[in-house]
Amino acid sequence: MLTLDEVCLDYGAFRALDRLSLAAAEGALVVLLGANGAGKSSIFRAVSGLHRLAAGRISLGGRDLAGVSPAGVVRAGLVHCPEGRMLFPAMTVEKNVRLGAYVHRRDRAGVKRGLDEVMAMFPVLAEKRHQPAGSLSGGQQQMVALGRALMGRPKVLLLDEPSLGLAPLVVRQMFDAVAAVNRRGTTVLLAEQNAHAALGIASHAYVVEGGRIVLDGPPDALRNDDRVRRAYLGG
Ligand code: ATP
């Protein structure tokens, strides 16, 4: 349902994405593996309309996203949960989560229902809902960011490195939550450097290097690929 076709993206004279094509079928959990600077975040910026394409096409459910504003992309069902969480640390947990409903959900009952779902999914956030988001642990803040993204009722969720800087146990919880969101029917595109954990929940994976896709396949095939083992799975 989400397809990138020969996408090029430039930062000035630097070509960060070079004729990159990929697809995420409806209900899939697609992982993008790649080192720092490979182009994963640029893929997300391209998809969410934050950066204009130099060439190529991106479509969602058959609709071309060219020229659609970032808010229009959200309304079309695509929500981006950026790397580094981007919370408002002085605002409460609940207010941060509610912000995710801002672009296209104004009905009070719907927002309340969405909020209840997020709090049920992450009980620790329900306990801390009136505390400033900045007072939470890194993993809990990542849950706030994920909850905020879910408030936009995404058909497709773009998750940029949700495990960054988290302790292994918390990484596990985070990935369990992402898998649960996917099982409920949300298509997920997940950029990760933690290849072990990401391949554990993926239905399909792409390897990004130098702004191109160099390899893709089902998780088992990638786990058994020598290049992937050397570069991303520690031998
Ligand atoms: P990371 O995990 O570090 O975010 P990434 O795979 O997401 O890595 P991108 O952030 O997409 O990589 O960056 C791809 C390339 O584009 C890198 O070489 C980066 O230095 C460059 N780049 C990213 N943003 C800009 C920018 N605003 N101006 C110039 N170059 C940029």
TrEMBL record:
Keywords of this entry: Amino-acid transport, ATP-binding, Nucleotide-binding, Transport
CDD domains membership: ABC_TM1139_LivF_branched
Superkingdom classification of source: Bacteria
Gene Ontology MF term list: ATP binding; ATP hydrolysis activity; branched-chain amino acid transmembrane transporter activity
ABC transporter domain location: 2-235
Stored Pfam families: ABC_tran, BCA_ABC_TP_C
InterPro entries found in the cross-reference section: AAA+_ATPase, ABC_transporter-like_ATP-bd, ABC_transporter-like_CS, BCA_ABC_TP_C, BCAA_Transport_ATP-bd_LivF, P-loop_NTPase
SMART domains membership: AAA
An example Gene Ontology biological process: L-amino acid transport
PANTHER family attached to this UniProt entry: HIGH-AFFINITY BRANCHED-CHAIN AMINO ACID TRANSPORT ATP-BINDING PROTEIN LIVF (PTHR43820:SF4)
Family affiliation: Belongs to the ABC transporter superfamily.
Listed name of the protein: ABC transporter ATP-binding protein
